[in-house]
Structure prediction request, 355 residues.
Amino acid sequence: MNYLLNLFIEFLDKHNFNESIGIMIFSILPFAIIAAALVFVVLMLVYAERKILAYMTQRKGPNRVGPNGILQTTADAIKLLCKENIELLHSDKVIFTIAPILAFSSIVVLWCIIPYNAEFHLIDSTISLLFYVAVAGFPMLFHFLAGYASNNKYSLLGSYRALSLTASYSVPILFTLLATIFLADSMDLHKIIIAQEKVWFIIPNIIGFIVFFIASIAELNRCPFDLSEAESELVSGYHTEYSGMRFAMFFLGEYAALFVTAVFTAIIFFGGYQPPFGVYLSNILMGNCRCFNFLIYFEQTFWLIAKSSIIIFLIIWIRGTLPRLTQKSVMNLFWRYLTPISIINLILIILATRG
Prediction:
């Protein structure tokens, strides 16, 4: 973020602001931007999913609060803020209270390591891919703790389903990402994006993308793999006993995870913020005018969000199309099919890159 910092310092000098105070503000500003973007993105995703599913099932969807129902999700958020947090008599109150906070916090950390363009990222690390894999599994662990602490048999069953699902999808995801590491020769998300300047990794790793995409839906606990919150079987699963803001944190974390998983998929397989045709439109329009160089960063963010939006639409489409699988079918899918396929794909990638 050196380029953005230099621009900010030049702005401060121009208006005679104290530079040390400005640098302190700059260190806080990116986190504020991420927090505001997270809330906005979640509200828009909930609204978009309702509208898309309504169209697919021939319903109108939200259409009362605001123009075309656009303020419905905001009204729902206000309703959850005003609802009472119910205290259970025989629950583990400490774990019951902190589980939704920890589940949501782990998703926020993932938002911070994503490179949204060549300059804007909060946590830069040479092992950011490994860091993502490690942290992405935390929400399911906290879902298990939430179900266990609720002292409810339906919540407990849902939490055990979450653990079995985590053990199933983690293995093919790991082997698929190992193939990406061999292709990029790095675990740095920035270097992975740069390695796709000429060819996106989906072309040599199309099998890996299919496996990763299916496993990612399971990681998000979405249909057809939403076993831990199957309403027809478990009332509401691991968060049956949650209400008010505690339930809202689980709900907020689910859609925040949907967005960050789609962004991560775009980075790993579709070149991240790289333009589709290898040429930035801002460079063509502005030519050699250096005063508008910053526009390239906005364009990079646009391409990343555009690719992620397509992936999000596919995930929502699958939810509106496929029924929920049984637990036995899910285990068979991951252990008997996707895991061997991901191992074979890794071997082929290694032979192709090191042969």
